[in-house]
Amino acid sequence: MNFDGLRVAVTGAARDTGRLLAEAFADRGAYVCLSARNLAVAEQAASVINQRGPGRADAFRCDLAEPDSVRAFAAAVADRTERIDVLINNGAVYIEGDDLTHAPDDKIENVMAVGGTGTLLLTKHLLPLLRASARPDIVNMISACGETGHRRSGAHPAFYAAKHAHAGLAEILSHRLRPEGIRVISLFPPDFVQDGPRQASGDLTARSVVDCVLFAIGQPRDCFIREFHFEQVRPSRG
Ligand SMILES: NC(=O)c1ccc[n+]([C@@H]2O[C@H](COP(=O)([O-])OP(=O)(O)OC[C@H]3O[C@@H](n4cnc5c(N)ncnc54)[C@H](OP(=O)(O)O)[C@@H]3O)[C@@H](O)[C@H]2O)c1
Predict the structure, then answer these.
(1) Which UniProt keywords apply (predicted)?
(2) What is the pLDDT of residues 135-190, one digit of tens each?
């Protein structure tokens, strides 16, 4: 797949899946606006991409928990490019725990601020740049925890709530932006591993999740893939 000239913005892109996504697009020729909470780590990840090519990356600070940082990121991207073709809403905070009372309030606020408000504000502030693209896509890295009726994860209720907020945003935007030709592509993976054998008996890997994104973005413009859902490995009976 060749994404030469594609302009992509990614949140939480200095490590793990966000970084894999940034690298996968740059490996195929794209220009990446690579953002992270910490500018220094974003710069490091961008520099690896720029040394390798063929695509290139600029590093930006974007703390999704801080609305001012989100707006500053969108403004800085607008200073560099007149359009964005793909926005990837990847950054999120995970917390574990069955019991609602077992996480401090400030942690819960942070989970909701990043996955809920921050993601929504960034999408809002980058929408003008997406509207300036001839092939605009918004990719949402959600989670099976954002599916209605999903109860299998040991994630804290705040994570479920944040992912449902993200899923709700994606659902209505997909419908409302369809007439403009803006595709809203959402992924609802179960727990996945960054690395591992890509076999039926193993866990889903980040590489396979990234390949789903590349596939959806690579489709012709009549093809609006709205959601990816995944079957989990069934726990073996002892
Ligand atoms: N891994 C899984 O099992 C799984 C399953 C389903 C869905 N997902 C979703 O898929 C996406 C990628 O997963 P992952 O495993 O790569 O997640 P991860 O390892 O937990 O990484 C999360 C990313 O979000 C960033 N982030 C955290 N707080 C932020 C903030 N305030 N502002 C901006 N960025 C922030 C992190 O940056 P820092 O380096 O600054 O912390 C990191 O880059 C996430 O949305 C995740 O919820 C993951």
Answers:
(1) Oxidoreductase
(2) 999 999 999 999 999 999 999 999 999 999 999 999 999 999 999 999 999 999 99
Q: Which pLDDT does position 22 carry in this prediction?
A: 98
- The model's pTM is 0.98
CA of 158 to the centre of ligand 1 (A): 15
Ligand 1 atom nearest 13 alpha carbon: 43
- 69: domain CATH number? 3.40.50.720
Residue 235, domain member (yes or no): no
Structural domains in the chain (count)? 1
What is the 222 CA–ligand 1 centroid distance (Å)? 30
214 within some domain: yes
DSSP H or E stretch at residue 27: helix 16-27
Q: Pocket around ligand 1: residues whose beta carbon is below 6 Å from it?
A: 11-12, 14-18, 36-38, 62-65, 90-94, 114, 141, 143, 189, 191-192
| Contact call for residues 126 and 77 (beta carbons, < 8 A) | yes
| Alpha-carbon dihedral angle through residues 170, 121, 8, 17, given to the nearest 10 degrees | -70
